[in-house]
Design a protein that fits this description.
Number of helices of chain A: 8
Number of helices of chain B: 5
Low-confidence stretches of chain A: none
Structural class of chain A: mainly alpha
Low-confidence stretches of chain B: none
Helix content of chain A: over 70%
Radius of gyration of chain B: 18 Å
Helix content of chain B: 55-70%
CATH architecture of the largest domain in chain B: Orthogonal Bundle
Strand order of the largest sheet of chain B: 1-2
Shape of chain B: elongated
Largest interface: A-C, 26 and 31 residues
Oligomer: heterotrimer
Strand content of chain A: under 5%
Number of strands of chain B: 2
Chains: A mainly alpha, B mainly alpha, C alpha/beta
Number of domains of chain B: 2
Distance between the termini of chain A: 20 Å
Distance between the termini of chain B: 33 Å
CATH superfamily of the largest domain in chain B: Winged helix-like DNA-binding domain superfamily/Winged helix DNA-binding domain
Strand content of chain B: 5-15%
Amino acid sequence: MTGLIFKDLVNLKSYIKSIALMCAVFLVISIMNESPAFFTGYIQMLSIVIILATFGYDEKVEWDHYAMTLPIKRNDIVKSKYILAYSMVLIMTIIGAVTVTVVNLIQNKDIMADGNMLANLLIASIISLVIAVVIPFTFKYGSEKGRYVMMSIIVIPLGFAALLNAMNVSMESVIQFIEILAKYPIIYPFVIIIAIGISYMFSLKIFDKKEF
Amino acid sequence: MDIIINNASNQPLYEQIVTQIKQLIISNVLKEGEALPSMRLLAKELKISVITTKRAYEELEREGFIESVTGKGSFVSAKNPELLKEESYRIIEQYLNKVVEKAKLCGLSKQEILELLETLYD
Amino acid sequence: MTQLLSVKNLNKRFPNFQLKNINVELDGGLVLGLIGENGAGKTTFLKCILNMMHIDSGEVLMLGQNMNNSEKDVKKDLGVVFEQCPFGDHIEIKDVADIIKKIHPKFNEAKFYDYIEHFGLPRKQKIKTFSKGMKMKLSIVTALACDPKLLILDEPTSGLDPVVRGEILDIFSDFVSDEEHGIIFSSHITSDIEQIADYVVYIDHGQIVFNKEKDEIRDNFAIVKMTVEQFSHFDPQLCLGYEKNQFGVEALVENKSEIQEAYPELIFERVNLDQIMRYHSKGGK
């Protein structure tokens, strides 16, 4: 199973280079605007973009067909995707947290100031949930449809919010809702773990039944 | 050692091999105790199946022409004069059969054939 | 001697297609060639025995074991090669070794690089620069480096030039050098099957047309050439398929010697697998 993750990383080699460039760009923007949000938001997005890319690479060369002939279990293939995806979320969250801390310290502010740390954790949680939905979907329907789902999940609420904003509908209730969420960050881990658990079980079942 | 498969022949492949190896043994091209090529090598070179060469070797062994030692291969058996004579007899019988057939087709009588044989033999 | 593969009454249904009552066996030391038109079911059959597809009924024993129970165990001794090379464009040969050694317990890195060297595959180039032949060699080398007992290959020589095909067939011949090893391969290049197969399994529309020794086919199948007049007297039961041309009729028969005795005046010719497939699918036209 380490081999599978390693294979994904090797496939990503050249992709990572262009991503690193974008990261640098966002980092600069963040620094210039003195708002780490651009950077932390972007890198969290990367987790899901990258994991979908690995599915895409696999599909292109029919890797799964080949993997089915190697001495590994079907479960291992599913496991490797989850480990890769959530390791990335974790890494991005930590990088984000470090960035926020550094920026805040430079500005002589408290670590939790401006809600940036909280935003980092919130986005990490949301991305974790999105991944939990997208992975089983991708196992069943392929990476292209998985990409559409990812975009729908992210774009639709944002678009909806933008629409409301444009129509000058009060954002009060939305902001209140977000504030409630922000009050109890302690529940995030539980919700996320349960979501991942359910997602993982679905993925195992889907992949087990899959015909190649 | 030459073995040629005749694709135009009606004789089954394994039989062709058996016949040819017998010839080689009888004519002493293959000497007593000499090692035969492995079944696999023969199959590969002649582009036929190892099942066929195996069948041929098994028949040769059954008829006492060769001996197979597991792990070592197949070897020409000690020449058994009885056996060789029997085999030569068989081959000549086949030829004679053809002669008889042809003779009948051409309308030659048995007497005429016997006379021809006498002339040729002396 | 191990029985490498035993398939009994395999059935698998699809919306538009069905693999029906497939029975196949392969003993060690032998090569089984699968022939059939595109879409006949060759690849489907291979996927079914590999548990890539779930069969509806039947029993598959690979290397004596049931895939459902000991899949991981069995696969340690399998080497499988598909037409599509499973390594991405940006991967290099070194990466292949690094990936597979982490996955396959029997991967022999030294052997892998030996083969790579032997076939002149470039170590430092990305796979996207490889030709089809090179990619296929890489797939085969990777499989061989894991020391498999049974090699399963789907169209391993398709799209390759005759020289490369010859090289690859030689590799296969050498692989089956003892009773512990065997090969199953499908190909529509029937001359390759004719060269190294011991058994030929002909699949058509999901069913086995015949499963015979290659040399048996060679000895017993024939094309009978006759005039239209002669054909009208010819027993239709004996004919597996025929073709009328402007100057006569050619029919495919299976019991050459018997039929030759019955019809000594007719002309009999050796037939190759291509022709057998063509006449079979024509039936009577």
